[in-house]
Amino acid sequence: MMCSGVSAMKSLASNLNGLFAVVKPTGITSAGVVNQLKRILTKEHKKQLQEYSNHHTRSGKVGAPYKKLRIGHGGTLDSNASGVLVIGVGLGTKLLASQLKGNKRYRAVGCLGTSTDTQDVLGKITQRSPADHVTLNLITSSLQRYVGNIMQIPPLYSALKVGGVRMSDLAVRGEPIAPKPARPVTVHSLECVQFSPPYFTLDIHCGGGFYVRQLIQDLGQDMGTNAHLAELTRTQQGPFTLAKHALAEDKWTLEHICEAVQEFTEIAELENLIKPP
């Protein structure tokens, strides 16, 4: 796929259909990242469209029509979380659900001794308790209870909706919320890769619908103390890894995105799935 000059416009307007991944920074929502990418791509789209139209007007041909860009993401990361965020463009938006089922990895840092109302570092401390008794062996043994097909109650601060409104929005407004019932989730593996009290770092390989902040809180309670999520990085989503595939913010350009979409298309052999109707 050519991604420069007039060819870049044609790629964006007609043929840029597929998936790519970016590195979501902290301090911005997943929707905010999508909006930023949309502005970047739309600006380039219009620029290349104008170049295309000018070229063909001189040759007596009709310029290409404007085509609105479709773009979306494949799984929300909290604003204070970072890491892999998969983006679908064009017909690729239809692939987000089917291509990203069930395979996610996270690097999570928990903090022992305190609980917060949001279960993460952004919330207000609601409870304190001693954690001097917690050892690496205790963490490791406690983690085994959460491996496999388990039941998990979703946190109140989540993107799940009640009456069409996100539970997190209701919680922020102080409205009473009944917890959602426990639901089945899958955890492939859990490992504590670092322990520097009061902080512990987990490598988590899980399926969809799993809430890391809930794991951290439940784990703290199981170990006879409190805990909240201090940091969260998604290191893999579907076939996209943070190390190999996610575009850093300085590469959020039409050229790099074209290359990333093409690379994934070739690797995953998605050509038949993303052909225009």
UniProtKB/TrEMBL annotation:
Gene Ontology CC entries for this record: nucleus
Pseudouridine synthase II N-terminal domain boundaries: 67-212
All copies of domain tRNA pseudouridylate synthase B C-terminal, residue ranges: 213-276
Domain of life where this protein originates: Eukaryota
Pfam families associated with the record: TruB_C_2 (PF16198), TruB_N (PF01509)
Class of the enzyme per the UniProt entry, highest EC level: isomerase
Record's keyword terms, sorted: Isomerase, tRNA processing
Keyword Membrane: no
EC number(s) given by UniProt: 5.4.99.25
Gene3D superfamilies in the record: Pseudouridine synthase
Gene Ontology biological process terms, A to Z: mRNA pseudouridine synthesis; tRNA modification
GO molecular function, one term: RNA binding
Family as reported in the entry's similarity comment: Belongs to the pseudouridine synthase TruB family.
Protein name: tRNA pseudouridine(55) synthase
